[in-house]
Amino acid sequence: MEKEVNKFLELRDFLLNVKSYDEAYKGFNWPHITKFNWALDYFDLMARGNENKALIYCEENSNEKTVSFDEMSKRSSQVANFLNDLGLQKGNRVMIMMETSVEIFEIILGIMKAGGSIIPAATLLSPKDIGDRIKRGDVKFIIAHHDYTERIDEAGNILETLTAKICVKDNKQQSKCSGDNAEFNWVDYSDVDNYDSEFSPSFITYSTDDLFLFFTSGTTAKPKLVMHPHYYPIGHLTTMYWLDVQPTDIHYNISAPGWAKFAWSSFFSPWNAMATILTIRYSQFDSKSVLEKMAKYKVTSLCAPLSVWKLFLLEDLSKYNLSLKKMVSAGEPLNPEIVNKAKEAVGLELREGYGQTETTGLVATFKGMLRKDGAIGKVAPGFEVKILNSILDEVEPNKDGQIAVSTYPVKPLGLLTGYDDEEKNKEIFKGGWYLTGDTAYMDEDGYIHFIGRVDDVFKSLDYRISPFEVESEIIEHPAVLEVGVIPTVDEKDRIVPKAFIVLKPDFHPSKQMALEIFRFIRDHIAPYKRPRSLEFMEEFPKTISAKIMRKDLRAYDESLKKEDKRGQLEFFEIDFARELNLRRRK
Fold this sequence. Notes:
Helix content: 25-40%
Number of helices: 18
Radius of gyration: 25 Å
Low-confidence stretches: 179-183
Structural class: alpha/beta
């Protein structure tokens, strides 16, 4: 497999040293890889004898541990031997339900080495959700932190289909790893200590064998299982290039282990670049504490979603001795207000990236690229992305359509194999394209401007309304922390936008605050897309991956309409007819 890994290394080194985006896009071509196991063929090769820091782990109480690449390689081989001894066979699926920790990194590597497939699970899952994932994911092994073992045991008879349950205890936890009603005992993960630090596989890993299987967050339907094969880490070379992470960087990505973003930016991309990963474990996110730790550990590269940037920008960032050289955001579309404030606060460009659980980095503002307000950026090296209409014809520049990725004649290594649903696969793979389900337009310079999910965009008085576009304008009001826009109906039964708003901590819902926001809306937003009502909320209904569930907001609003009620903190533009001079409104 030496030739295969060399193809990977050549591409990796090309992207680490390329001088411009144009050079990267023209010079990058996906390799044909037949046999490849990233943990065995790349990580061990890179890590053995390498005493550089692979991982810095710390907790909110300042407990910390540093692990070298060599230590991580040997420890993950112990994990692989341990799992094989428990009966793990090539292709067995392993569900991981853990907080970030040193162990989760060595476990992911160990499963890869042992030939297993990995199903990350959010720690907020209910017993019913856990049982559903075990059944639909054909899970054979579960590895969980001690705090979640009782909840897993409550999943019921489905546990009888498992080969083993493995409990990872924190240092201070001495209690048994099984609840009183456990169907069978949990195996203590500390038994890994007794195994050899050399691992030799008894099988060949083919690049198309299953590696990662992610359950989507289920914002509009039952979560789907997204399948990625062993060439998935190669696909993340595009993510590495977007991050601009280098071997000398200390990279911190803010993401929970249960989601694809953790694999993206807390695992494959930084270690593709041989960089050091910082991971922080906390019971509840606290921006002050996290910023202090970023300063302490001299983080040079940061990846954080919009929701975190909002909280960071409530702080006085000048008080922290930050060592940042690059910072990016993905997971939620950015708006110009956040980008501009971040640059004012830190002095660096906040570069946006776009991808999905189904992909690696697809579109981004890459290093050295001129940023355009409202644009995600340009297409990543290795991908051909077009904006298509409903019959799969490319639309003209600045016309809306669906973001589509070419799969012919070469399918990019950053795309999913498929879903666990053949009917859904027929919907997303059509005519040589992968259809993302997201709408956007591409301007004459090749920049892609995100509009929203296909299902979220709606028409009002024959105008197309993008919730994201309206949200981006409302959030510029100094009192607004979060906003979600949906379609509703007005007193004349016309479809119009409605804004749900969460205020910043120092502001409180009131009629006066509603009036101030309506005034702001009238001054800043075109009449056709102006929300005609707004409702204050303490927090939004969100998926366990922290995405706003617009379908729940719609259902709530529809229930109000059916009962002819208004929300407790709901205000209508017409309530302020005199103050807003609405007499001539059509």
